[in-house]
């Protein structure tokens, strides 16, 4: 798969709420995930740990009122998307989040993801 095809597939699955399937299908076993907004999970390495981190977010999401994922913008072996979410998180209340997600592709797998949020969740 090309970087464009991987990007399109990720967006398609995530728009349908199939984030876990996207990780199984598209992520490398040694995926590195970087959260720029927090020290708690700032750098996570390995598919099992990344899957758990994602599961924790969805466990904390009491209700997702609305979400929107942009079409991907691809450059070489990188792509980015913008995610906007109106979500109520347990213990934090309702938040409007905007996030830029940058992905790095190698050997037809996503090997690194990096997230930049507004507002910061510090």
UniProtKB/TrEMBL annotation:
It comes from the Bacteria. Residues 1-117 form the SnoaL-like domain. SUPFAM superfamilies: NTF2-like. This is SnoaL-like domain-containing protein. It comes from Wenyingzhuangia marina.
